[in-house]
Specification:
This protein has 100 residues and is an alpha/beta fold. The protein is built from five helices and five strands. The longest helix has 12 residues.
């Protein structure tokens, strides 16, 4: 399942309850971030071991363009997470739509 930047902004504005995870590297996060929890892609397997109680929570993943977060999404779904979305176009799409 994918989500676009307009839908994510709507969720932010409505203060909906969801978990936003940025799977980029620390230096990328420091340059620009959406306020997400930072879990670099290589750390996802270890990090989700501590998230077993959140398997049914709404989780939205993002990266720079959507590729890394797509891989994280596939991994999490294979591990039993049921409501994981990938931000289409990542932060590049966010910046294009709303600026930095």
């Amino acid at each position: 399942m994918n989500i676009n930047v307009k839908e994510l902004k709507r969720k932010f504005d409505a203060k909906e309850d969801f978990i936003l995870i940025d799977v980029r590297e620390t230096y990328e996060y420091e340059e620009f971030n959406l306020g997400a929890q930072l879990i670099p892609l290589g750390e996802i397997p270890e990090a989700i071991a501590d998230m077993k109680d959140k398997k049914d929570a709404e989780i939205i993943l993002h990266c720079r363009s959507g590729a890394r977060s797509g891989r994280a999404q596939q991994f999490m779904m294979a591990e039993g997470f049921t409501n994981v979305s990938n931000l289409e176009g990542g932060v590049l799409a966010w910046i294009e739509a709303f600026g930095s």
